[in-house]
Structure formats: structure tokens, C-alpha cells
Amino acid sequence: MTRLSFHQKNLILFDEKIEILKKYEIYCYQVTFFLLKKEKTAIEAATYSLFELSQDEEFFLLDDLSQKRRVKSLAMKNSVILYNKPL
Questions:
Q1: Using one digit for the tens of pLDDT, what is the confidence trace for 21-49?
Q2: ∠ CA 57-80-43, rounded to 5°
Q3: Contacts of 77 (CB under 8 A, 6+ apart)
Q4: Residue 49 to residue 31: CA distance in whole angstroms
Q5: With the CA atoms of 78, 80, 71 and 22 taken in that order, what torsion angle do they form, in degrees rounded to the nearest 10?
Q6: pTM of the model
Q7: What does each C-alpha distance from 1 to 4, 13, 15, 16 come to in angstroms?
Q8: What integer is the mean pLDDT of 50-57?
Q9: Cβ neighbours for 71, distance < 8 A, ≥ 6 positions apart
């Protein structure tokens, strides 16, 4: 059996994180678009939300329902921020 290096272990974890984030990408956009009704702004809010989630190590340890709630919460928060952003 081959031992994985520290770098290889982190790479696997990174790949898993990407898959988890991809799982919520469309849902996140749906939430932001529902609130903002503007495609460009919804994409921006969803991008901010997914980036924020990518930095949250605890997010990846949550069960599916808790992850979905966290995605919705951040999507709503970032939508409100962008909605109130001066032009």
C-alpha cells in the first residue's frame, strides 16, 4: 500500500471541497436570482457566497441539510449587501 504525502492528502481534500461547492452552485444562484431579479448581480452574490464558503473549514464538516442552510444564509446575506450597494 502506498502512503500519501501531506500534499497528496490536501489535494484530495481540496477536490472534495470543490465537489461539495459544485453541489450547491446552482442552488446558491437560484437563491440570489430570486432575491435580486438581475442575472449579473445574482452571479456576483453567488460568487461571493461560494468563495466565502470555500474559506469556511467548518462548512465542509456539516451534514447536507446544514450545508444547504448555510448556503442559503450566505446567499441571502450577500444578495442584500449587493442590493444595498451604491451604484
A1: 999 999 999 999 999 999 999 999 999 99
A2: 70
A3: 49
A4: 11
A5: -50
A6: 0.84
A7: 10, 20, 22, 22
A8: 95
A9: 24, 27, 28, 31, 49, 53
